[in-house]
Amino acid sequence: MKIPLAMALLLAVAATAAAFNVTEELQKEPDYSEFNDLLTKSGLASDVNTRNSITVAVIPNSKIDQLRGSLGQTATEKQLIDIIRVHIFLTYINPAVKNEDQQITSLYQTTGKAPGQDGTANLTNTKAGLDIVMSGSNTTIVKSVKQIGYNLSIVEVDKPLTPNGVLPQAPTPAPPPGTVPAPAPVPVAPAPILAPAPGLAAATPASTRSPGSASDQSSAPRILASTLLLGSSIVGFALLWARSKPRSKRRVFNVVNPYSNSNLDNIALRIWRRSFWLEPHEGEIACCSSDLELSQTILSD
Ligand SMILES: *[C@@H]1O[C@H](CO)[C@@H](O)[C@H](O)[C@H]1NC(C)=O
Ligand SMILES: *[C@@H]1O[C@H](CO)[C@@H](O)[C@H](O)[C@H]1NC(C)=O
Ligand SMILES: *[C@@H]1O[C@H](CO)[C@@H](O)[C@H](O)[C@H]1NC(C)=O
Ligand SMILES: *[C@@H]1O[C@H](CO)[C@@H](O)[C@H](O)[C@H]1NC(C)=O
């Protein structure tokens, strides 16, 4: 009688251990709550849970801004999800044991969106430890967070992986304030619809300010210029959007100041059927609180 009972207990333990829930594992580790949040919101947690031999390279909360920052202000939600996919590998890696140098495949590679092999990485032993090198980017595994059988490994890495091909294109230089062109002329080629917010990208980094402009003294013209610049970018987008959606509903978007990434108070972009315009707006806008969501909304509609 004793032996079958022991076996039954073992089987019961094995049966419950077979399933894992990455969300719950990470909930036990408050240091990674933000990554856990991204994993859940992106829907990738349930993908991870269906797999069998997988490593999630997590970034502590203190470095999550590096991940968002690497994408820039023009990133779409899809790019954020892709960068999370980059941190999920279809190989069980236990940093506590000796690992052979090997090529590992990320979940991003499986989407077919990675140019060539940009979604695969090399796992290599270096003096610093176990490195992951991936298309112009690398990181080091700092420690094991959780190992479950040969099924789920959660490891902490010292910085986010930001491989080529996932990141938005480098911003094109913005024209200096004062020479901001009028909103784009009407005929627009259809190709840019799939590009990551090209107009908005033109207005992003502080480095695009014209050399020698004393930012203290010129902040009013700069805000005006960026409003115009952004306005024309959004108008260009809205145009594409309106052309592709003849029966669109009335939509209101926040207008974002690209220099501070904050909303421009009381100015909204309204889209109604094939028309769109900037107008004064009081109160909350339910739809889009940032250019990230705005571009996403337009691109995914
Ligand atoms: C994993 O855990 C989270 C949080 O407890 C829960 O919401 C989710 O439904 C779980 N997923 C599965 C597949 O059980
Ligand atoms: C990984 O290693 C292979 C073989 O050495 C090499 O061809 C490839 O370029 C490497 N990939 C990366 C991302 O460094
Ligand atoms: C890792 O990235 C750093 C820059 O962040 C670079 O200096 C270094 O050469 C890279 N290492 C490898 C093995 O690619
Ligand atoms: C790993 O997954 C396999 C297949 O689902 C399962 O049989 C095994 O018990 C799991 N191991 C652990 C430790 O969860």
Molecular structure report:
There is one protein chain. 33% of the residues lie in helices and 22% in strands. With 301 residues, it is of the alpha+beta class. It has a domain at 22-157: FAS1 domain, CATH 2.30.180. The strands form two sheets. The chain has a seven-stranded mixed beta sheet. Strands 8-9-10 form a three-stranded antiparallel beta sheet, with helices on one face. The chain is elongated and about 60 Å long. The termini are far apart. Residues 5-18, 178-182, 184-217 and 288-301 have low confidence and may be disordered. One 2-acetamido-2-deoxy-beta-D-glucopyranose is lined by residues 103, 121-122, 133-135. Residues 1-19 form the signal peptide. Its main location: membrane. It is a lipid-anchor; GPI-anchor. This is FAS1 domain-containing protein. Residues 19-161 form the FAS1 domain.
Please report which band the strand proportion falls in: under 5%, 5-15%, 15-25%, 25-35%, 35-45% or over 45%: 15-25%
- Total beta strand runs: 10
Shape: elongated
What is the helical fraction, as a range of percent?
25-40%
Secondary-structure arrangement, i.e. CATH architecture of the domain at 22-157: Roll
Domain FAS1: 19-161
Signal peptide: 1-19
Protein name: FAS1 domain-containing protein
GO cellular component, one term: plasma membrane
